[in-house]
Design brief:
Number of domains: 2
CATH superfamily of the largest domain: Alpha/Beta hydrolase fold, catalytic domain
Strand content: 5-15%
Shape: elongated
Radius of gyration: 22 Å
Strand order of the largest sheet: 1-2-4-3-5-6-7-8
Structural class: alpha/beta
Largest sheet: 8 strands, mixed
Distance between the termini: 97 Å
Number of helices: 10
CATH topology of the largest domain: Rossmann fold
Helix content: 40-55%
CATH architecture of the largest domain: 3-Layer(aba) Sandwich
Length: 331
């Protein structure tokens, strides 16, 4: 009788273990599909809405099938940037073709190179580019790989895009010979800039980053929170499989670590109500920078360009930060 009970318990335990193993396998399959969908752009499908706007059935659909993100593009011509604007193409060291728009200011003016965020493209930064032009800076707006006029159809949320940043800076120095190069990046663009400084040996004269996240894992967790879903273990599995598919360790893709390599002046701009990259997380990245740095938060702004809500204040803060470089040009 005792032996029979022990056998029954072992069988029950075995069934429980099989159920948990099956659930874990299903979770990994779903996470793998979801990570692929987040990092590969599609054509012919509508874009999945923001997590906060989805119904319960839509949230379940996203969890089961992943998001749908069309390849970012624009119908705007280069002249939307200005009458003197021109379009360029150049390549990274690995042969990835990147599209860009350039508009000059006065001769020998500082050059600002602008990098967009996740699932965006260069025309999304027209307002900020025109503000930089008003401040007397030339501008170069760049499409990351997979977006706009660039080749490929994937993104790595700023990891491999660091190579795009480095390639854009090399192209700009060779093509335009600016005396000063300033890098500006929104969200993923800011993460790519910080990684380019850390891993590609890039040495710009100054950096402006906006809405930058501190760790890849944290920003993925916040997407689950926006859907009112528990983030564990889904966020961890997404970061793991996303890294596997893209060929890097997603848990090591952390701007807070890259920031320690920044030696030039840097300005942080951040929305006080950012649900994707919390304000305290952006401040951790700021705290990691060893040199000259400034931080400006804009109240009640979410994960969106601060310029759209506070254009005058954004421009004043940026102008004050750039003043030493503008004086250098005048002299």
């Amino acid at each position: 009788m005792t032996e029979s009970k022990c056998q029954l318990r072992r069988r029950r335990l075995g069934r429980v273990c099989l159920v948990f193993a099956a659930l874990f396998a299903i979770l990994n399959i779903l996470a793998c599909r979801h990570a692929y969908a987040m990092m590969h752009f599609e054509t012919g499908k509508p874009r999945t809405g923001l997590p906060e706007t989805l119904s319960l059935s839509q949230k379940i659909g996203v969890l089961l099938l992943g998001v749908s993100i069309p390849r970012p593009h624009t119908d705007l011509p280069v002249s939307a940037l200005g009458p003197a604007a021109r379009s360029f193409k150049f390549c990274t060291d690995r042969g990835v073709k990147l599209g860009a728009w350039y508009c000059p200011a006065l001769p020998k003016s500082p050059l600002v190179i602008l990098f967009h965020g996740y699932a965006g493209e260069k025309s999304g930064m027209l307002a900020e580019a025109k503000a930089f032009l008003d401040l007397g800076c030339s501008v170069l707006l760049v499409d990351f790989r997979g977006s706009g006029e660039s080749s490929e159809s994937y993104t790595t949320i700023g990891y491999v895009e660091a190579e795009d940043v480095a390639a854009a800076a090399r192209f700009a120095r060779k093509q335009f010979s600016p005396s000063t190069v300033i890098l500006y990046g929104q969200s993923m663009g800011g993460a790519a800039i910080l990684r380019a400084v850390h891993s590609c040996g890039l040495r710009p004269d100054a950096i402006v980053v906006e809405s930058v996240f501190d760790k890849m894992l944290n920003t993925v967790r916040h997407r689950f929170e926006a859907m009112q879903m528990p983030s564990f273990p889904g966020a961890e599995l997404l970061v793991f499989w996303g890294g596997v598919e893209a060929g890097f360790n997603g848990f090591n893709h952390n701007p807070v670590d890259y920031a320690r390599s920044v030696t030039c002046p840097i300005l942080f701009l951040h929305g006080g109500a950012d649900p994707r990259a919390h304000l305290n997380e952006a401040r951790r990245v700021f705290d990691a920078v060893p040199g000259r740095k400034e931080f400006k938060d804009f109240p009640n702004v979410g994960h969106a360009p601060c310029f759209s809500r506070f254009p005058a204040e954004w421009k004043r803060v940026v102008e004050d930060f750039l003043e030493p470089f503008r004086q250098r040009t005048v002299s």
